[in-house]
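A reminder from the course coordinator: this example appears on the midterm review sheet, so study it carefully.

Given structure:
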């Protein structure tokens, strides 16, 4: 009987789900849904060899010819094997059927159809696995299947190296297997290497930002001599080779190829080469290597595998059952390392870089044994067929999906989960045998532990959209990172090849892979969405859809508007929200008093100690594109806004003209105040801080208030103006500025010229002060053009803070105007202050221009006993900064910066201020573009602004305050003469204090 008869016989056409497709039916419920033969067959595609996807290479019968490496590396043109290219075209044709699918929607479907999709969940819940993720179950499978942990390890030391390891699941899987085998009777030393998630120069889109395990095991991670963790830098590999040799090396590296999945193998070839070279120099004799690969069509992969085969006794290509069947991921497992000479290693290392020599093959084709090439073809064919089957299975299940199929697939998934646990002997280990014991890290998205990502809003989300959407997003990101815009012609040809590269010139790739605008193969790409919907409804050309062929004959065409963002439109470039003609607004303008009560950061007695070896120097970062405190997208939006403002409003006078109309900060001289200041901008900035934080005593004896000010001339004069007025001129001030100035004030003010970077205030001021004011200044040109503003302020900031700590009296205050707070260095300086003062605040009042990064750091309540060792630490930092070697990246341990309350406060402040600055810059640009200044003025807010300034002067209590004066007499102060006098309210008589006789 035909399976497709109109009359369907249940006994012939339907399957109960019990039988040959399941090895052990005892684990299944008694009821199984009915399936058609097609549904049954589709569901079981790939089931029979799920746990056996492996290709074993025959042992090469050849002696190692070292001239192959020393003389022939990258000496010939790239080559290809026609049969391999046919396999590549075949799998690409299948993959291209997914191009127009939204990848996030497609992943929802494939998560349901993945046969091993419940293994992680089951192990996590039932076996309490540490960092149980997809990577963990893959590594656990490989460890068991290939016996990668050596036998007879009792009372010995086992060393392993894990390259491109973040977030750490391979390490945790190795620990789990090791403890299952030996308990805690084996000493294990491991090293993790990955792109450093805290290194500000690393692109977040190129790395795993999940640091929950890293932060708990930071001392066991190696990030290279430059702190980046970049394995494509030769010096980082060389330094790693100096460590003790390892018995096991794993390498799980990849790059984002979602923008061009068909060229995944070529995109990652440089990374895989670097990983393999690193492993060859790090392994001990007899050791094993696990290296992630993808397809094996290209000459780069063939050559690399051939080199590996020369130095190992066994070589396998395997796809773990728990590796998603529809992707190209495979793993190289090499056992029995034979050793390698230093000369060969140096030759291999020479070619480690983000890009291979242009259009060159690693080895000549004729230098590779034909038997090995034949094996490579058999291997490629085997895994290509299985990948195609899986994609076709998922596409067919999408078409066939119904309740019965859903139930059958769910049952199949449960069966596979049980098979995995049984086959690989997974058991629960004692919680004390975990690597991290103080908190439980199960690997789930809900349990991020102490991850730095929590403070800035969580882990990054996978990019969705169609292939074209992903390509556009990737292209936009690359253009931002490159720092310049390209022409439309150049953009149309641009394609992501990973590792900060956009294209490898003259590389022999198919023309289809370079046509970003096309979907490469499918003719469906030429059909509009409207036409597809009509055809799905039974449309015939020239006829309507109704019963009488009435209705619409042609589809409604949908055109994409690149200038629009939001639901139903393309995603715009990050940061370009001003795409319509509406006036941009800034939250809480014009006074920006969003946080009515500042956050106070208290000192905790159990704080982490400051240690000298926490200082880390590396190469200078080109751009700060990753931060502990803000998301990369926010940094990108900020830089774009700054750079566009600089380009459009390059004339300073034009910029000031707009700011004067839009922001109160640039018209402070108009605010009605009780006195007219010569430098109202700086004076009222300090007044607004005094209003909020009560920086100055309101009542005191006639003693002078001791202060130190380190700032440029205008700021110093303005600050002193306000302090003199507020303190009734009873101050003892020391001003350090670039040029000596004079003051007409009668108060005691000493000026010091600061002509060098060696200032130590204790040499000039011997007395302790109650207030220390500093300013970290940088030109507006640097602010608008640089993506690393903090680099130009490091020495200033460190010196000012050092001088403040050495000058302040007990319970004194420190105020400093600073700029961006995005790097570990700046945060580290603030951390030292955080542990030295009773409260630390970052504050930006309306008196500071919102288009600038300026903000005030206010530290109150100095505790001298807490800063023991800090001044010496800062002296060391200053000395290193003055030495000018590289870049000082980290000055306190990362665990200090990730103290939850501290990081959260800095992140909240940074995120609030970065959003304010972006919005202010957009508003300024909008008014310039639309010439709307005539309708905007902040003058109406001047009276309200005055209420946010301190208008109260210090009340002086005289030593003779307790003396009883005759009736009608009282003591007064003359503002004009700056002297005290006595006044009789009954007679109107007045007598100067110096002439008064009791």
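Designed residues:
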């Amino acid at each position: 009987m035909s399976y497709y008869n109109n009359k369907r016989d249940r006994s012939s056409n339907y399957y109960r789900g019990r039988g040959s497709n399941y090895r052990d039916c005892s684990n299944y419920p008694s009821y199984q849904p009915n399936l058609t033969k097609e549904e049954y067959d589709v569901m079981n595609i790939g089931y029979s060899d799920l746990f056996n996807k492996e290709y074993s290479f025959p042992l090469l019968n050849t002696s190692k010819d070292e001239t192959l490496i020393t003389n022939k590396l990258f000496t010939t043109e790239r080559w290809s094997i026609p049969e391999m290219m046919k396999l590549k075209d075949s799998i690409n044709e299948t993959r291209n059927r997914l191009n127009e699918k939204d990848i996030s929607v497609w992943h929802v479907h494939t998560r349901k159809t993945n046969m091993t999709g419940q293994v992680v969940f089951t192990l996590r819940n039932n076996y309490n696995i540490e960092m149980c993720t997809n990577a963990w179950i893959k590594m656990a499978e490989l460890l068991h299947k290939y016996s990668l942990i050596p036998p007879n390890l009792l009372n010995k030391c086992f060393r392993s190296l894990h390259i491109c390891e973040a977030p750490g699941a391979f390490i945790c899987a190795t620990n789990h297997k090791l403890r299952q085998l030996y308990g805690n009777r084996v000493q294990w030393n491991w090293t993790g290497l990955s792109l450093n998630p805290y290194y500000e120069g690393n692109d977040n889109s190129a790395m795993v930002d999940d640091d929950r395990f890293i932060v708990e095991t930071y001392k066991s991670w190696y990030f290279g001599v430059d702190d980046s963790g970049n394995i494509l830098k030769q010096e980082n590999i060389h330094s790693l080779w100096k460590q003790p040799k390892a018995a096991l090396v794993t390498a799980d590296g990849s790059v984002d190829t979602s923008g061009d999945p068909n060229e995944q193998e070529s995109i990652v070839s440089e990374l895989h080469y670097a990983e393999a070279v690193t492993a060859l120099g790090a392994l001990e004799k007899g050791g094993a290597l696990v290296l992630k690969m993808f397809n094996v069509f290209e000459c780069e992969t063939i050559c690399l595998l051939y080199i590996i085969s020369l130095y190992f006794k066994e070589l396998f290509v395997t796809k773990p059952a728990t590796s998603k069947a529809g992707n190209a991921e495979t793993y190289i497992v090499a056992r029995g390392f034979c050793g390698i000479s230093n000369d060969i290693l140096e030759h291999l290392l020479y070619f480690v870089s983000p890009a291979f020599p242009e259009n060159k093959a690693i080895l000549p084709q004729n230098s590779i044994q034909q038997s090995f090439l034949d094996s490579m073809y058999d291997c490629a064919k085997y895994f290509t067929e299985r990948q195609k089957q899986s994609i076709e299975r998922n596409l067919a299940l999408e078409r066939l999906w119904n309740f019965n199929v859903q139930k059958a697939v769910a049952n199949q998934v449960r069966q596979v989960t049980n098979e995995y646990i049984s086959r690989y002997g997974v058991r629960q280990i004692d919680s004390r045998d975990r690597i991290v014991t103080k908190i439980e890290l199960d690997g789930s998205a809900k349990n991020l532990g102490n991850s730095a990502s929590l403070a800035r809003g969580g882990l990054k989300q996978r990019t969705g959209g169609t292939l074209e959407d992903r390509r556009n997003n990737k292209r936009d990101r690359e253009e931002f990172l490159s720092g310049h815009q390209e022409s439309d012609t150049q953009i149309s040809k641009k394609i992501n090849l990973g590792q900060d590269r956009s294209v490898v010139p003259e590389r022999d790739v198919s023309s289809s892979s370079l046509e970003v605008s096309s979907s490469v193969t499918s003719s469906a790409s030429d059909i509009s969405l409207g036409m597809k919907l009509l055809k799905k409804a039974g449309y015939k050309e020239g006829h309507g859809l109704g019963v009488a062929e009435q209705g619409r004959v042609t589809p409604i065409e949908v055109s994409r508007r690149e200038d629009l963002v939001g639901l139903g439109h393309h995603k715009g470039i990050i940061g370009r929200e001003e795409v319509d003609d509406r006036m941009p607004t800034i939250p809480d303008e014009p006074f920006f008093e969003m946080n009515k009560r500042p956050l106070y950061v208290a000192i905790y007695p159990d704080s982490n100690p400051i240690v000298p070896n926490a200082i880390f120097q590396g190469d200078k970062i080109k751009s700060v594109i990753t931060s502990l405190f803000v998301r990369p997208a926010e940094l990108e939006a900020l830089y774009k806004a700054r750079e566009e403002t600089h380009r459009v409003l390059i004339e300073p006078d034009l910029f000031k003209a707009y700011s004067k109309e839009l922001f109160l900060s640039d018209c402070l001289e108009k605010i009605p105040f009780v006195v007219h200041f010569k430098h109202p901008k700086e004076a009222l900035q300090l007044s607004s801080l005094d209003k909020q934080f009560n920086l100055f005593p309101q009542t005191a004896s006639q003693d002078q208030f001791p202060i130190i000010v380190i700032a440029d001339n205008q700021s110093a004069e303005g600050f002193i103006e306000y302090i003199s007025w507020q303190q009734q001129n009873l101050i003892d001030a020391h001003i350090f500025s670039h040029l000596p100035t004079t003051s007409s004030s009668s108060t005691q003010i000493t000026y010091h010229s600061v002509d060098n970077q060696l200032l130590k205030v204790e040499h000039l001021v011997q007395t302790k002060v109650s207030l220390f004011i500093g300013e970290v200044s940088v030109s507006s040109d640097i602010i608008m053009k640089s993506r690393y503003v903090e680099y130009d302020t490091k020495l200033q900031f460190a010196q000012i803070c050092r001088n403040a700590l050495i000058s302040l009296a007990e319970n004194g205050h420190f105020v400093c105007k600073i700029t961006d707070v995005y790097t570990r260095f700046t945060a580290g300086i603030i951390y030292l202050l955080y542990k030295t003062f009773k409260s630390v605040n970052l504050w930006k009042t309306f008196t500071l221009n919102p288009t600038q990064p300026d903000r005030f750091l206010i530290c109150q309540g100095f505790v001298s006993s807490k800063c023991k060792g800090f001044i010496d630490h800062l002296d060391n930092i200053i000395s290193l900064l003055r030495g000018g070697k590289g870049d000082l990246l980290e000055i306190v341990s990362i665990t200090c910066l990730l103290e939850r309350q501290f990081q959260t406060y800095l992140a909240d402040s940074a995120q609030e201020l970065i959003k304010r600055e972006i919005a202010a810059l957009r508003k300024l640009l909008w008014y310039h573009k639309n010439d709307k200044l005539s309708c905007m003025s902040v003058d109406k807010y001047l009276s309200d602004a005055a209420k946010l300034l301190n208008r109260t002067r210090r009340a002086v209590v005289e030593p003779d305050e307790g003396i009883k004066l005759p009736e009608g007499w009282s003591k007064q102060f003359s503002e004009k003469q700056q002297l005290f006098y006595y006044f009789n309210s009954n007679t109107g008589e007045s007598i100067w204090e110096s002439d008064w006789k009791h």
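The longest strand covers residues 283-293. Residues 15-454 form a domain with the Rossmann fold fold (CATH 3.40.50.12760).
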